[in-house]
């Protein structure tokens, strides 16, 4: 990897602040989206889960239909046997044979009654399942409408900001290459530890940007001299003077406007 060109402290401060401005703009773009991407993902996952549940319920209905068909076959076979037994009764030769046929006939009647009872129970379950499926499908439709609206909202935001975000990310990567790895690591660490992602802030009214803690005049002079990198003892953020900050903001805003 090519060694990064050695630059002065002031150039490092300017490059770092430039990087901060660009990364803050990227943060703003992503904040506009807010929780939308996660909401879309969560809704999509929820709908997939509901559809899977619906598929399982539909499979249950198919199983119920198959069971009813089996029990109807049992009834049909039993009726066929009863007809045969009725014919046999016409030709019985003794009481023993008669009683045997009658018992077989009674057994088949019981088989029919049991099968009909089973079918009745299955049909009740089918009605319950269908009611559940109906409610589930209504819920899926509502969730899908909600998802479609969220996707449309996200797509509109993405269409408006995606190009700018990508261009800014490319610029951010370019500025990183100008700065030594040690400072980039420190910059990213500070950004991750502060709520607003501001790792580098200017002096404003004698205090570091966004802070109420006054910086001693001697330290302010050192910051303005741009001879060394100075951090805020309270927040750990890197400090730059207001003039440098204003110059770099104007430069980067002009660059962003030209993207």
What would your notes on this structure say?
This protein is mainly alpha-helical and 259 residues long. It has 2 domains: 9-32 and 180-258, no CATH class; 36-160. The chain has helices at 9-33, 36-89, 95-178, 181-193, 217-225, 242-258; strands at 200-204, 207-208, 230-231, 238-240. A hairpin with a 2-residue loop joins β1 and β2. α2 runs antiparallel to α3 (95-178). The longest helix has 84 residues, at 95-178. The chain is rod-shaped. The two termini are 28 Å apart. The relative contact order is 0.14. The mean pLDDT is 90.
Structure summary:
The chain has about 260 residues and is mainly α. The chain contains six helices and four strands, in the order H-H-H-H-E-E-H-E-E-H.
How many structural domains does the protein architecture include? 2
Helix content: over 70%
Tell me about the largest β-sheet. 4 strands, mixed
The average pLDDT value, as a whole number, equals 90
Query: What is the tally of beta strands?
Result: 4
Sheet with most strands: strand arrangement: 2-1-4-3
Number of helices: 6
Could you say which structural class the secondary elements and strand pairing correspond to? mainly alpha
| Ends distance | 28 Å
As a whole number of angstroms, the C-alpha radius of gyration is 39 Å
> What shape does the CA trace take?
rod-shaped
- One letter per element, helices H and strands E, the order comes to HHHHEEHEEH
Instruction: Provide the low-confidence segments as ranges.
Output: none
Strand content: under 5%
